[in-house]
């Protein structure tokens, strides 16, 4: 599963946000949701397969952490989108400013 598809599900997004604050065991993650432990395990499996989280076995516990390498794809995508939209939004802002200036001049000339 690709990383974007993995995050299309709200519970998985919430898990990633939680892990952004630090590592948690599967039990700690599950305790924060009103779904079954098997459902949480399935979500964690999807996130692991997508390369978004890493798991470390510590005795009987599975500790989950974000995988920084898996987040690089998102960083690259955001940079790409910003690179495309930044100049376009700057152009739009200039056009809107021109339109406002033209409207102000037109209103002044018509006496409104």
From TrEMBL:
Q: Which UniProt keywords apply?
A: DNA-binding, Transcription, Transcription regulation
Q: Which CDD domains match?
A: HTH_ARSR (cd00090)
Tell me which species this is from: Bosea vaviloviae
State one molecular function term (GO): DNA-binding transcription factor activity
Q: Which InterPro entries match?
A: ArsR-like_HTH, HTH_ArsR_DNA-bd_dom, HTH_MetalResp_TranReg, WH-like_DNA-bd_sf, WH_DNA-bd_sf
> Taking every annotated instance into account, which residue ranges of this chain make up the domain HTH arsR-type?
1-96
Task: Tell me what this protein is called.
Answer: Transcriptional regulator
Protein origin, superkingdom: Bacteria
**One Pfam family from the record:** HTH_20
Q: Is DNA-binding a UniProt keyword of this protein?
A: yes
